[in-house]
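@here heads up, posting the sequence + SMILES for the magnesium ion run so it's all in one place. Ping me if the SMILES looks off, I pulled it from an old spreadsheet.
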Amino acid sequence: MSEPTTQALLTSAMAGNRSHLARLLSQIERNSKVETQVRLALAGIPATSVVIGLTGPPGAGKSTLISALLTHATASFNKTAVLAVDPSSPFSRGALLGDRVRMQSHGLGDRVFIRSMASRGETGGLARTTATAIQVLDACDWPLIVLETLGIGQVELDVMDLASMVAVVLNPGWGDTFQANKAGLTEAGDVFVINKADKDGVEQTRADLQDSLSLLKPPLPINIFETVAVKHQGVEALWRGIEAYLKEAQKLGLLEQKRLSRRRRLLMRILQRDFDVRMHAYLTSEYGDNQILGALAGSLSIEALRADLFEYIANVDKRPR
Ligand SMILES: Nc1nc2c(ncn2[C@@H]2O[C@H](COP(=O)(O)OP(=O)(O)OP(=O)(O)O)[C@@H](O)[C@H]2O)c(=O)[nH]1
Ligand SMILES: [Mg+2]
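bot reply: prediction finished. Complex structure tokens:
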């Protein structure tokens, strides 16, 4: 049996075929040409999904919390897709599998779709493939997408730009033990969660957090929730808080703004990549090389070289190969 084409996979995924959706997402992760093709195919489809990002230090309980939130989230949105983004895979394949098992024991069947993604070590690749995966899930009618990623560095936090809102998950003791990217994490959050509230130090952590948050001027007030995800404690209240945030953000037009900036960024990236490919073609062609040598020898002005380069870039696909 031959492998279905990308377009066939996309059409079928959009018609609701989950295994084709999963296969398409794998292809997107592996192959940037497929990714570009999918993006172009979806470019005209408006984004409508709500994307909730969950970020925080390793082991804070993000996956456990998502698993506990799924019942509530799915009751509100009918269907929920989860994307767990792992920056350091393939080393943590085991952890990812654990995540999936943990998150899949919710009994929601077809109303939940869970997927792990790796960045494959490429700078910026994390954000790019995640953005495309979100676009695909959106086009396949997943009204709510929950995105899990580590809040350890700028690249990981950049992924959170793709979300309509971000919940930052911390643990008691955060103030003393977790220094890395503390400010970055605080700035990323619209809602904060002190998970593992069954441990000591909740009050101190809340005070530390309030201290850091008092320096910010967010568009909406920031709430702090306490949960014990393993026991489902405080999870419903957290979900109500998330819903209340979404409702207010919707009223203020913040969600629409985020969707627009998400799509704008995607389009910019397509154009940037196209430009890079064309530029590379010029620089590595015999023709381009001769022009550059001409400029270096003084027989072509730099201005003329620049005009020639732009002319080439604009028409490279019309040139005979
Ligand atoms: N005591 C306690 N343990 C918890 C709680 N929530 C999660 N855990 C445990 O903390 C560990 C890490 O939980 P995960 O949900 O995998 O955390 P994570 O943030 O997704 O971890 P990474 O994705 O690896 O960064 C697991 O052993 C959980 O059982 C909680 O509320 N209280
Ligand atoms: Mg996890």
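MO: Residues 62-63, 99, 148 surround magnesium ion (ligand 2) (CB under 6 Å).
MO: One more: The mean pLDDT is 86.
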